[in-house]
């Protein structure tokens, strides 16, 4: 279709505007006689979408097996390269989960044999170029972008990154910390928990499509593992290289042969099967999460592969179910019933393994059961109330109208073609997709719904509060509680003989006497401390007033006066914890609750009070130094506490306690709390100055202003308030 040329109107000002409006109105009225005008938009006969051609990249295979795909685009003086590598996290050994991700990140971040990591960063910045790398569950990916005039030089560096990475040890540690930070926070967001755990239920905990790295698996990875992974998987016959942009075909191929042509083929690799659970696990599963005020619901089972014969019919069915604001889930569950903040659903389809069929929603806690029923009703309704001819026609129209936007740039076309090449799909699949959707009949959609959507096989998962539900979850079956505790790395056992244990007990006794004696320590029922903490802020270090109330063994309250208002965190003594800020009051998420409990147990007074309890172990592990003072180190284990006390053998003062805990961002770090300026307070010798050392660097400290031992403490100090201002519900 081509628009007719409109003659230039040689007028100006109001006359031009009026003339143009009049002309448009006359043309519009003349084009459609009154008797022929459509009574509504539904009666309009839309013309068939015009045909369009999708440019195809040229495919070339080098002698060493490297596949090159080229797509010229001279609109801008830029060149992009994308390399797909046949590797992926699904082939990681179970004790090294996270290895592929670390390799993919440090491949680029760790520099090359020719350039250090810092030199590579600076060089790319000066070239206005970029190189990135990553490895996902299914594939390795590297990208580069540069000005056309710099393409030859940048491609050479890109080849070095792929072929000759240095895997700098310091950059490995940065990447490890990032992953560990993610592990520490993996239970903070309910939707993150929802999608992670429903995949676990559907694919199985041992499937690479559901498993996740742990502190222990990530901590076990060293640089040699990255080098070995690269040596195993990165070879030219496993690489597909795509080029798109402003280049000459012959010159680009010559450059590719220069940089990659001498790369030797690798050995044959027998990749292990990346399996999944074959049988469904129907039932109702619950992740109790009391620090949120809504329920997050998911239900699903295995989906299909994209080469399934019914794939196009499933695509149309998915659109009927959840493809737009007029889809069944949106219009019924969200709009008419008002049950969902968000709702979606589809039969999942992946390239080389079954996708995840998933229906999910977020809803108020007191509409949880109603939400589950609504999702089940719509899933059953796809068969009980099959998609109508009109629904199918609208769904096909929606898919076809948006189809072109998937391929509206050469870069998008190339990326899709690389994907087809990687998974072994026909390279003309884009053209086939449109024809496949157009050919789908209403009966095929109904059959696809009956064959691929099975509510009776659903694993139903709820992430949210245990209290306040409209009806018990047990109405849907026996409730199975899902444990989402983040496993800590196994602490090494104390290898100590009788001599080390005896010396450890002796040093603990020395510390007890230095602090004021057993009677004074064991008599502590409460402590109220007011101090000033030094914290790093946007404008530099700032001093924060802090009030801490400790009631051993299981209650604590910390109040901090921050620039934006007061922040309070507390343990209630009944297994729970809460936080209050100007934004409101919430239960502490699991990771923060656990860390606050450990912090209380590491309090020196609380720790020494437990010295005679079963399971308390102290062993001398050698000498050391704290701020120039010679110390003896005692490793203490009790419940979840695993720490090292640095004790001055002369004075008996505990000069430091070291442990692995939550550092900046929540990632595990080596933390040392150093104590000095000991003064007597109500019969106890207490340090009045503290320094916090994180991974060898000082990260702040504190100064004790006043302390009271065994003051009268109101139990309400530890009880969870109902609102940010502490007022009970109904009085706000």
CATH architecture of the largest domain: Clam
| Main β-sheet, spatial strand arrangement | 20-19-18-17-16-15-27-26-25-24-23-22-21
Largest sheet: 13 strands, antiparallel
Here the CATH topology of the largest domain equals outer membrane lipoprotein receptor (LolB), chain A
How many β strands by DSSP?
A: 27
Number of helices: 20
The proportion of residues forming helix, as a percent range, comes to: 25-40%
Low-confidence stretches: 1-36, 724-732
Mean pLDDT: 88
End-to-end CA span: 64 Å
Q: Specify the overall morphology.
A: globular
Work out the radius of gyration.
33 Å
Sheet-strand content, in percent, reads 25-35%
CATH class of the largest domain: Mainly Beta
CATH superfamily of the largest domain: Lipoprotein localisation LolA/LolB/LppX
Structural class by helix and strand composition: alpha+beta
**How many domains, as an integer?**
3
Any overview of this molecule?
With 732 residues, this protein is an alpha+beta fold. It has 3 domains: 190 residues, Metalloenzyme, LuxS/M16 peptidase-like (Cytochrome Bc1 Complex, Chain A, domain 1, 2-Layer Sandwich), CATH 3.30.830.10; 189 residues, Cytochrome Bc1 Complex, Chain A, domain 1; 220 residues, Lipoprotein localisation LolA/LolB/LppX (outer membrane lipoprotein receptor (LolB), chain A, Clam), CATH 2.50.20. It has 20 helices and 27 strands. Strands 20-19-18-17-16-15-27-26-25-24-23-22-21 form a 13-stranded antiparallel β-sheet. Strands 1-2-6-3-5-4 form a 6-stranded mixed β-sheet, with helices on both faces. A hairpin with a 6-residue loop joins β23 and β24. α2 packs across α5, α2 packs across α8 and α10 packs across α16. It is globular and about 90 Å long. The protein starts with 12 loop residues before the first helix and ends in a 23-residue tail after the last strand. The N terminus and C terminus are likely disordered.
């Amino acid at each position: 279709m081509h628009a007719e040329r409109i003659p230039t109107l040689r007028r100006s000002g109001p006359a031009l505007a009026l003339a143009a409006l009049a002309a448009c109105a006359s043309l519009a009225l003349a084009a459609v006689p009154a008797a022929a005008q459509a009574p509504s938009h539904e009666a309009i006969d839309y013309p068939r979408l015009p045909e369009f051609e999708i440019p195809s990249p040229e495919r070339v295979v080098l002698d060493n097996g490297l596949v090159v795909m080229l797509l010229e685009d001279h609109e801008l003086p830029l060149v992009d390269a994308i390399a797909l590598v046949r590797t992926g996290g699904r082939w990681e050994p179970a004790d090294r989960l996270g290895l592929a991700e670390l390799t993919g990140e440090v491949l680029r971040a760790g520099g090359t044999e020719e350039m250090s990591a810092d030199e590579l960063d600076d060089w790319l910045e000066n070239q206005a170029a970029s190189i990135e790398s990553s490895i996902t569950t299914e594939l390795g990916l590297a990208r580069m972008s540069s000005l056309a005039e710099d393409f030859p030089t940048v491609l050479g560096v890109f080849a070095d990154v792929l072929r000759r990475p240095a895997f700098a040890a310091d950059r490995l540690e940065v990447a490890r910390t990032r992953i560990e930070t993610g592990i520490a926070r993996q239970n903070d967001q309910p939707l993150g928990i929802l999608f992670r755990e429903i995949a676990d239920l559907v694919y199985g905990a041992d499937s690479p499509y559901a498993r996740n790295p742990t502190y222990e698996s990530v901590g076990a990875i060293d640089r040699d593992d990255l080098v070995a992974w690269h040596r195993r998987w990165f070879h030219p016959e496993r690489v597909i290289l795509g080029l798109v942009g402003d280049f000459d075909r012959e010159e680009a191929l010559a450059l590719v042969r220069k940089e990659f042509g001498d790369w030797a083929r690798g050995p044959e690799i027998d990749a292990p099967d990346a399996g999944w659970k074959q049988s469904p696990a129907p039932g109702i599963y619950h992740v109790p999460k009391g620090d949120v005020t809504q329920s997050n619901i998911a239900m699903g089972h295995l989906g299909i592969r994209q080469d399934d014969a019914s794939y196009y019919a499933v695509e149309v069915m998915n659109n009927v179910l959840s493809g737009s604001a007029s889809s069944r889930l949106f219009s019924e569950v969200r709009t008419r019933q008002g049950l969902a903040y968000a709702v979606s659903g589809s039969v999942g389809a992946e390239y080389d393994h079954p996708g995840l069929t998933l229906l999910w929603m977020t809803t108020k806690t007191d509409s949880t059961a109603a939400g589950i029923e609504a999702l089940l009703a719509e899933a059953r309704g796809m068969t009980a109330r099959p998609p109508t001819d009109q629904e199918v026609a609208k769904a096909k129209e929606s898919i076809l109208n948006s189809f072109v936007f998937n391929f509206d740039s050469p870069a998008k076309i190339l990326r899709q073609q690389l994907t087809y090449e990687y998974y072994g799909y026909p390279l003309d699949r884009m053209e086939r997709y449109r024809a496949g959707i157009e050919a789908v009949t209403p009966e095929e959609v109904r059959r696809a719904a009956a064959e691929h959507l099975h509510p009776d096989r659903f694993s139903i998962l709820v992430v949210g509060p245990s209290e306040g539900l409209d009806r018990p979850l047990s109405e849907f079956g026996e409730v199975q509680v899902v444990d989402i505790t983040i496993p800590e790395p196994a602490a090494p056992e104390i290898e100590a003989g009788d001599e080390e244990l005896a010396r450890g007990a002796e040093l603990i006794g020395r510390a007890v006497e230095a602090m004021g004696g057993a009677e004074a320590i064991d008599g502590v029922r409460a402590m109220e401390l007011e101090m000033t903490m030094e914290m790093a802020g946007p404008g530099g270090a700032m001093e924060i007033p802090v009030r801490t109330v400790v009631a051993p063994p299981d209650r604590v309250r910390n109040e901090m006066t921050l620039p934006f208002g007061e922040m309070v965190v507390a343990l209630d003594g009944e297994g729970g914890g809460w936080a209050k800020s100007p934004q409101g009051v919430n239960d502490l998420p699991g990771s923060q609750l656990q860390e606050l409990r450990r912090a209380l147990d590491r309090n020196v007074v609380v720790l020494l009070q437990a010295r005679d309890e079963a399971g308390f172990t102290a062993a001398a592990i050698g000498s050391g130094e704290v701020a120039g003072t010679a110390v003896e180190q005692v490793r203490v284990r009790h419940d979840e506490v695993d720490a090292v006390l640095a004790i001055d053998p002369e004075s008996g003062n505990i000069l430091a306690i070291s442990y692995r805990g939550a550092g900046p961002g929540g990632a595990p770090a080596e933390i040392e709390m150093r104590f000095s300026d000991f003064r007597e307070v109500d019969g106890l010798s207490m340090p009045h100055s503290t320094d916090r050392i994180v991974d060898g660097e000082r990260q702040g400290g504190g100064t004790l202003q006043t302390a009271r031992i065994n003051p009268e403490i109101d139990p309400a100090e530890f009880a969870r308030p109902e609102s940010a201002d502490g007022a009970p519900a109904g009085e706000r």
